């Protein structure tokens, strides 16, 4: 079969690597892709935002399945448009993508169906939001309702910080995303990312992962899209996974189906594991980045039949096998990220690095020019490795990182540290 993958990040490189390894796949295309994806797929200069162009391409190339990486095309309804044109697509409809596209929508769904989450209120203007903040006190969390490219959440340590965040959002600091806000209780616990494949009625738990959001070691510095990840997340024990499925994921699926907007695709639950159990921080309606990179390294089964089963509503009785090994990925970013950074700097040593046992490098913001690999974004490379333990995977990943010659890049040196500390105690 022929598959088109949409996206250009490390997540899409990992998906392309796994999809491309399937014996079911004849041709794999990726739009727009990057220099690493070009080793697995034929990259095409298509804009995923131009649905008509994507549909025309699918017809011309006889595409059997479109896999959508990022959230923006999903929230813009690309799956609806592809399906209307008779093209199978993996991902939720526009209506179902509201689980990520509107935080207020998800909070109301949790309230209506007793899904554990932080206590909250929604506001359409600043005065009432600030009153609520003053009544509740700090710490407290202020969230823009809409998609804000990871910048829409402020965990405020003081009432003044929360009020400033409310002003910033209602004054248009995040564009239309901040026209409505959610103010919610600050949860305490350990965070984990949990993934389930969904076919509208059935959810199949994938694996868990933990990522590192801050730019610098010891979780200091500004928030980023993610500087590294590892899987499995030790906090997601079998019992915690069961509770997450029965208390959070399955009721969500039932509610979405009952609303007439069944959820298909991958559901990514950002969780806080609290003293009372798992609570939902937020949903994403696509694979996580960089979590997908470690999930794909651990997945033994062919991914393509699972994606098809999710599209076709036949996940019931479906099973996936995982390697028992742990996986870890270190993100290498351009100096300055998540602020301003330079593009076009030269990266060398990638072949040496890829030669380290158990290592797999996934590209994010890269492009190839005259046989050289150049940085072309903020997050640029994912240096991934597997190992019997998270510590072993970490050793391999950093051995590979140290072979990469890129003076204009940086990475954290402590990815996996919490899991490794637990392994030390085990
Ligand atoms: P989100 O974009 O909703 O995942 O939020 C980004 C980050 O903000 C999360 O990964 C958490 O670290 C933090 N966060 C969001 N909501 C809460 C909350 N209610 N309590 C504590 N931390 C939160």
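^ structure tokens above, recovered residues below v
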């Amino acid at each position: 079969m022929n598959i088109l993958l949409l996206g250009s990040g490390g997540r899409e490189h990992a998906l392309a690597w796994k999809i491309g390894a399937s014996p079911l796949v004849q041709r794999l295309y990726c739009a727009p892709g990057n220099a690493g994806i070009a080793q697995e797929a034929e990259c095409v200069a298509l804009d995923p935002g131009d649905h008509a162009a994507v549909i025309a391409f699918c017809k011309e190339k006889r595409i059997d399945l479109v896999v959508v990486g990022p959230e923006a095309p999903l929230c813009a309804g690309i799956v609806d448009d592809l399906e209307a044109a008779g093209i199978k697509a993996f991902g939720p409809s526009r209506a179902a993508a509201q689980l990520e596209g509107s935080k207020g929508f998800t909070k109301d769904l949790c309230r209506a169906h007793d899904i554990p989450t932080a206590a909250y209120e929604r506001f359409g203007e600043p005065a009432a939001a600030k009153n609520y903040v003053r009544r509740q006190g700090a710490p407290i969390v202020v969230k823009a309702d809409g998609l804000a490219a990871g910048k829409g959440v402020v965990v405020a340590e003081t009432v003044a910080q929360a009020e400033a965040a409310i002003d910033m959002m209602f004054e248009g600091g995040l564009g239309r995303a901040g026209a409505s806000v959610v103010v919610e209780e600050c949860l305490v616990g350990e965070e984990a990312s949990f993934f389930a494949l969904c076919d509208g009625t059935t959810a199949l738990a994938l694996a868990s992962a933990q990522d590192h959001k801050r730019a610098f070691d010891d979780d200091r510095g500004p928030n980023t899209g993610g500087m590294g990840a590892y899987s499995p997340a030790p906090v997601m024990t079998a019992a915690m996974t069961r509770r997450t499925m029965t208390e959070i994921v399955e009721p969500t699926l039932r509610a979405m189906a009952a609303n007439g907007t069944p959820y298909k695709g991958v559901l990514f639950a950002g969780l806080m594991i609290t003293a009372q159990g798992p609570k939902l921080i937020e949903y994403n309606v696509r694979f996580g980045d960089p979590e997908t990179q470690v999930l794909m390294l651990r997945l033994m089964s062919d991914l393509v039949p699972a994606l098809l089963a999710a599209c076709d509503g036949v996940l019931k009785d479906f099973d996936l096998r995982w390697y028992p090994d742990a996986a870890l990925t270190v993100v290498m970013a351009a100096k300055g990220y998540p602020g301003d950074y330079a593009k076009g700097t030269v990266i060398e040593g990638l072949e040496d690095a890829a030669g380290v046992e158990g290592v797999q490098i996934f590209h994010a913001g890269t492009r190839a020019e005259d046989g050289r690999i150049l940085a072309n974004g903020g997050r640029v490379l994912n240096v991934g490795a597997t190992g019997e333990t998270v510590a072993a995977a970490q050793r391999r990943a950093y051995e590979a990182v140290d072979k990469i010659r890129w003076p204009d890049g940086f990475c954290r040196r402590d990815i996996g540290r919490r899991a490794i500390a637990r392994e030390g105690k085990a």
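Residues 118, 141, 153, 155, 184-187, 191, 213, 270, 281-282 surround adenosine monophosphate (CB under 6 Å).
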